[in-house]
Amino acid sequence: MTSTSKRILITGAGSGIGRDSARALAERGHTVHATTHSEEQAAAWRSAGLAGVDAFKLDITDAGDRARIAELPIDVLINNAAIGQSGSLAEVPLERIRATFETNLFATLALTQIALKPMISRRRGRIVFISSLVGRIPAPFLMPYSMTKFALSAAADALRQELARLDCGVDVALVEPGAFHTGFNQRMLATKYEWMREGSYFEDQMLQLKQEELRQLAVLEVASTGSIVRQIVRAVEAHKPRARYVAPWWQGFGVRLLRAFGK
Fold this sequence. Notes:
The protein contains 9 helices and 7 strands. The protein has helices spanning 16-27, 39-48, 63-67, 94-122, 143-166, 184-191, 206-220, 226-237, 249-260; strands at residues 7-10, 31-36, 53-57, 76-79, 125-130, 170-177, 244-247. It has a 7-stranded parallel beta sheet, sandwiched between helices. Helix 1 packs across helix 8 and helix 4 runs parallel beside helix 5. It starts with 6 loop residues before the first strand and ends with a helix.
């Protein structure tokens, strides 16, 4: 158990990395507001009865839901909620990109601004942004999602520098997960096949694309979220957090190599 308990709000805690991180933080003695996209997910948390967890629905794209956090005494906000979208930029319907930016960037920033106001007034607090390693390198057919993570990572870096100028005691950390087997990647990759059908520029390559994706996931996806959960816990508990946390380390190293060679 940590010696200094914090009150933490994490978005997107209904499944995957968000759920596992919320559980780990609660088990370490923190008070965790585990917020979910749906009431059903929140009810599942409440049924589990885990000590230290307060679960409720928070659709970050809903202004009314976002307003609920204004009066909560939050020490740490973990911006984890995100949606995935894939497809060729040559033809992806722009409303799909707009919707992805709305959740992954605009709504995330709107929630952050609400949480920041009392943090700045109290002169203490922490914002943790969950981005992605595909927010560092262009990924063909993943750019509707990847672009949002490029933007979120840049926003986190700039916000950290801005708050440092205020000397207000509020830290900002960025966490970049690689590929983990939570089901998120499969759902995201499948979205393009909802519209990339007959008449698509890539109609003749559909089978090849699907096979390549399956091979890549088989190689890259890590079965346990343990390594990224540990990084999120470190970002929360560190006296002075690092600017970036990455897991698994070997995927982060691979991305650095790709960038070094201009990929």
